[in-house]
TrEMBL record:
Keyword Signal: yes
InterPro entries documented for this protein: Solute-binding_3/MltF_N (IPR001638), SsuA/THI5 (IPR015168)
Gene3D superfamilies linked: Periplasmic binding protein-like II
Keyword Signal: yes
Primary localization: periplasm
Regions that span the bilayer: none
Name of the protein in question: ABC transporter substrate-binding protein
Domain of life: Bacteria
Annotated signal sequence range: 1-22
C-alpha cells in the first residue's frame, strides 16, 4: 500500500511532466492527434527561400513545432488545392491566392510575409522576336509559366490585359520552375518564360537568353504592376489559425529567424546551409541568384496594407470572380502571430 504522501508526490510529478510535454509539443498537436504540422510549398523558386532556410537550419524544431514538408514543384495553385482539400495545414505560396479564395467565400489568411516583392521576370531566347516596347509582338508565341492559376500566370494575363491583347493571342504552358523551366526555354518548348530566380540567373549565366521584363526590383515591380506586389507568404485556413494560435506563432518565430539569417548572411553561406534538393543548378550560380533576390525578402514578416492593393488591382483585370466580389483585404492577412513572435523574442 502506497502512503498518501507518496501518491501526492507522484501526482505532482505526473502533472508537471504532462505540462512540460504540452508546452514543448503544442506545435505538433493538430486536431485530436499528436502529429506533425503539414506544410506544403509550391516550388523551389527563391521567393520561398526563407522557408527553405527555416527548414534546413532546424528553426521550426527550435521554436517547438514539428513540421512535415511537401514540395509539389508545380506551382502555388497545387498547394492551394491541397490546403482547401484539407490535405495540408499550412501553405507556402503567394499572397494573391488569399484574395481569390475570399472571392470564392473561403476564409484563407496569410500570417507571415516572406517576400515583399514579385521577383518575376519575363525572359526570351537571344533570337526572340518579342519586344516589350511593341507589346503586340507577343502574339502567336508560347509562354512558359510555373503552372496554370499561379502568379506567373497572373503576370502574363496582366501584361495582356494592360495592353489590350486577347488571351487567345498566345499559348500559356505550365513548365514548372528552376532547371526544368530553363530547359523548356532552351529546348524551344516555349518561346518566352515567366519565372523567378534561380531560373532568371541561370538563363543569363548560361547564355541561353536574356531578361526582357524584370520585376525583381522595386522600380521594376512598379513599372510592371503599378506598385509593390507581395508574393511568398505562409497562409492557412482561418479556422486552423483560430484553433492553433500557438502553432502559428511558433511557425512565425521560425520564419523570422530565417529572415534575419538571410539579411545578415552572405549569399554563399546561405546556399551552403541548404541541402541539394533546394538548390537548382550549381551552387555558385545559385549564390548569384540569392544575391540578386535579397532585396525582395521581408525583414520583419509583417504585411503593409497599402501594398496589398496591388495584387487586388491586378486580379480584378482578368479574374471575373474577384472583379465581381466585394473583397475585404483585412480578412486576407494578419500580423497577429508575427507580432506575438516579435514580442516573445524581445523578452
Amino acid at each position: 500500500m502506497f502512503s498518501r504522501k507518496f501518491i501526492a508526490a507522484a501526482a505532482i510529478v505526473l502533472v508537471a511532466a504532462a505540462a512540460a510535454l504540452a508546452g514543448c509539443g503544442q506545435g505538433a498537436i493538430v486536431g485530436s492527434e499528436r502529429r506533425p504540422v503539414r506544410i506544403s510549398v509550391g516550388s523551389y523558386n527563391l521567393n520561398n527561400l526563407p522557408f527553405f532556410v527555416a527548414d534546413a537550419n532546424g528553426y521550426f524544431a527550435e521554436a517547438g513545432v514539428h513540421v512535415r514538408t511537401e514540395n509539389f514543384a508545380q506551382g502555388g495553385s497545387k498547394v492551394l488545392q491541397a490546403l482547401v482539400a484539407g490535405s495540408t495545414d499550412v501553405a507556402v505560396g503567394f499572397y494573391d491566392h488569399t484574395i481569390q479564395m475570399q472571392a470564392k467565400h473561403k476564409e484563407v489568411s496569410a500570417f507571415v510575409l516572406l517576400s515583399r516583392n514579385s521577383g518575376l521576370v519575363l525572359a526570351g531566347r537571344n533570337d526572340t522576336r518579342f519586344d516589350p516596347k511593341q507589346p503586340q509582338s507577343i502574339g502567336g508565341l508560347k509562354i512558359g509559366i510555373t503552372a496554370p492559376g499561379s502568379s506567373s500566370d497572373f503576370f502574363v494575363r496582366h501584361f495582356l490585359s494592360r495592353h489590350g491583347i486577347d488571351e487567345n493571342a498566345v499559348s500559356i504552358i505550365g513548365v514548372g520552375s528552376g532547371a526544368a523551366a530553363v530547359a523548356a526555354l532552351q529546348q524551344g518548348k516555349v518561346d518566352l518564360l515567366v519565372n523567378y530566380d534561380p531560373a532568371a540567373t541561370l538563363i543569363e549565366s548560361r547564355g541561353i537568353g536574356r531578361i526582357l521584363i524584370d520585376a525583381r526590383s522595386d522600380e521594376g515591380a512598379r513599372a510592371v504592376y503599378g506598385g509593390l506586389y507581395p508574393t511568398s507568404v505562409l497562409y492557412a485556413q482561418s479556422g486552423f489559425l483560430q484553433e492553433h494560435p500557438q502553432v502559428a506563432e511558433r511557425i512565425a518565430r521560425a520564419q523570422l529567424k530565417a529572415l534575419r539569417f538571410i539579411e545578415s548572411t552572405p549569399p554563399e553561406q546561405i546556399v551552403a546551409a541548404l541541402p541539394d534538393r533546394y538548390v537548382s543548378g550549381d551552387r555558385a550560380a545559385y549564390a548569384q541568384a540569392v544575391a540578386r533576390a535579397k532585396a525582395i525578402f521581408s525583414r520583419d514578416g509583417r504585411f503593409v496594407a497599402a501594398d496589398l492593393q496591388t495584387p487586388l488591382a491586378v486580379l480584378r483585370e482578368f479574374d471575373r470572380s474577384v472583379a465581381g466580389a466585394k473583397i475585404d483585404l483585412d480578412k486576407t492577412y494578419t500580423n497577429r502571430f508575427v507580432d506575438d513572435a516579435l514580442a516573445a523574442s524581445s523578452r
